[in-house]
Write a structure and sequence with these properties.
Rossmann fold, 6-stranded parallel β-sheet, 4-stranded mixed β-sheet
Length: 457
């Protein structure tokens, strides 16, 4: 990852987060409070969902249940067709990414335009988000400027962030005015009041939920909370953990469609509750903790794997530590179980998580499930070749670590040559273009220990 801009981001974000939590005692108190709220909520999830539905309906919000992403897409399409919608504007929603909703609507003749600036950039460039909070974090200013000049405003060259933001604003404002359908995610839904809560910084979410005639809110079933008083602690740790802000710019609370005498708001509000494997997670006491996630992205910002390989390397909607435990459960161990191995188990994600999800414990359980699976995918389909490869690998490892002279010789050779390999091998050049190449020490550890005069025990 040789993008200096990206390196700065992943250095600054953890720093900004710790500035928000200078008092370690306060941090632990907040984590315990927020984690306790989420655990209590998830433990009562079926009951809270049953409470949420009638309260939403009483407020005039139409509730739809979807077992799979296919069902959820069909529900949204039916709502769009009833509204005679040809254009939909979307606020940020990871559930919609999970559903691949944009592609589905496009296949059915409906344009779905992302209105979050980061999501808009990658949609224009036909990419997937690389981070759940900052979807275009992998692009620097020059790359975004090139995208805008080629695909947004060819006649207008925008070099500064302000100019590009203004260009996007002009495009999106026109779409907001013409869209018949607004689509958003849901950060929290309050069961006792039937209220949908939306956290944002740009104001685009408010446009999506108030200007179009019909608003569709998409939500994973785990996002429900019991009471309004549960929100402040969760909002506090969410914004501080995500972007190092003391509070978000906008916090929208939607309880009904437009009422008589009100000047804005949609005529219809629909809530689509998506399961898509979440009920399976709920059945296991440990895996259930995956549902605690509030989508702050802190685990990614602190993960030594994610910060070096980027989000696209995971080839899933949810990258980083949360993706390693969530995606295999959504898509199945046989399909995405490999993600559970993309971790050093260092525990940085657990320390950063504001609701204390035991990510490393869940990773170990998923690895165990993967090992037990009879359909586990190996690097080759040739069983004999796989065994031969493993035998050669382990025999080589045994020899290298049982012969001190050979170990020191190969370590010395690697330390001197490995840093030059990316320049010599085309395959490694492509890899190192977007990743930081590890720097080997000029002297091995045992030599540094000897020179420091540290006696061996």
């Amino acid at each position: 990852m040789d993008n200096p801009c990206l390196k700065r981001v992943f250095t600054k974000l953890p720093e900004k987060r710790w500035v928000m939590f200078l008092d370690s005692g306060e941090l632990e108190t907040l984590r315990n409070l927020a984690g306790g709220i989420r655990r209590d909520t998830v433990s009562r999830l079926p009951d809270l969902l049953e409470e949420l539905e009638p309260n939403c309906q009483q407020n005039g919000i139409q509730v739809h249940w979807a077992q799979t992403t296919e069902e959820a897409n069909s529900i949204v399409l039916n709502i769009a067709r009833k509204a005679d919608a040809k254009l939909a504007v979307k606020g940020k929603s990871m559930v919609s990414e999970e559903m691949e909703l944009n592609h589905f609507l496009a296949e059915n003749g409906i344009e779905a335009l992302e209105s979050d600036l980061g999501e808009y950039i990658i949609q224009v460039d036909h990419e997937l988000p690389s981070h759940i909070i900052m979807p275009a974090i992998h692009k620097n200013r020059e790359e975004i400027s090139e995208v805008f000049q080629k695909k947004v405003a060819p006649a207008k060259k925008s070099d500064t962030a302000e100019e590009m933001t203004e260009t996007a604003r002009q495009v999106l404002r026109d779409k907001f005015r013409r869209a018949e359908l607004g689509i958003s995610g849901v950060n929290f839904a309050v069961a006792e009041t039937g209220t949908l809560c939306l956290v944002e910084n740009e104001g685009n979410g408010r446009f999506c939920t108030t200007m179009p005639r019909v608003h569709v809110a998409l939500m994973g079933i785990e996002k429900v909370v019991g009471k309004l008083e549960d929100l402040p602690p969760l909002l506090t740790v969410l914004t501080r953990s995500a972007t190092g802000q003391p509070i978000t710019t906008y916090f929208n609370m939607i309880s009904s469609p437009r009422q008589d005498g009100e000047k804005d708001g949609p005529e219809e509000v629909h809530l689509v509750l998506l399961d898509n494997g979440r009920s399976r997670m709920y059945e296991d006491e440990l895996l259930r903790d995956t549902l605690l996630c509030i989508r702050c992205g802190a685990c990614m910002n602190h993960c030594p794997v994610y910060t070096r390989i980027g989000g696209h390397a995971y080839q899933s909607v949810y990258p980083g530590p949360i993706g390693k435990i969530l995606t295999p459960q959504l898509e199945g161990i046989d399909t995405a179980g490999y993600l559970a191995d993309a971790s050093s188990l260092c525990g940085a994600c657990v320390e950063a998580c504001p609701v204390k999800i035991p990510i490393t414990d869940i990773l170990l359980k998923l690895r165990h499930k993967k090992a037990q699976s009879k359909k586990e995918h190996h690097w080759t389909e040739l069983e004999g070749a796989k065994n031969l490869f493993e035998k050669i690998t382990w025999k080589g490892w045994k020899f290298a670590f049982s012969q001190p002279w050979f170990y020191r010789m190969q370590a010395s050779i690697l330390s001197r040559t490995a840093q030059f390999l990316p320049d010599q091998l085309p395959m490694l050049r492509s890899w190192s273009r977007f990743r930081m190449v590890p720097r080997f020490s000029e002297k091995p550890l045992h030599q540094l220990v000897e020179e420091a005069g540290i006696a061996e025990e």
